[in-house]
Amino acid sequence: MNAWAVAALVLLAAPVPSCLWVVARASAVRRLAGASLLSTVVGALFLLLPQAYDRSSYQDLALMLAVLAPAGTLVFTRFVAGGQHETRPASQAPGTE
Question: In the prediction, which pLDDT does 84 show?
């Protein structure tokens, strides 16, 4: 086991369970922050694993997560905010009587 693998294990041991606990038990805003932080931690983990196992193809996972995680955060935000806001048709918009 080399230093890269130890760093990956440290990321798995400390911040991942904390983020999962926040995602499972906190309010909607804190769940969103926990999910965003979890995607960042997992991205860092996916960057450490290729160094630990000398497999450069594993870096593709980190790149895909970096692209898809912000989109997932936006989808989650839309899902959470969907029940709190009413939408009006364009004909009933203020100032269009």
Answer: 59
Using an 8 Å Cβ cutoff, are 15 and 41 in contact? yes
Pull the structure tokens for residue 33: 């922050």
The token duo for 16 is 């991942």
Residue keyed to tokens 């989109």: 71
The pTM of the full predicted model, rounded to 2 decimals, is 0.71
Tokens of 91: 């004909």
DSSP one-letter code for 56: G
Summary mean pLDDT of the chain: 83
Q: Is 95 left (phi over 0), alpha (psi -120 to 50) or beta?
A: left
Q: Is the pLDDT score of 79 beyond 90?
A: no
Name the residue ranges covered by the structural domains of the chain.
3-81
Tokens describing residue 63: 């790149």
43 near 60, Cβ under 8 Å? Answer: no
Residue 56 has what pLDDT?
84
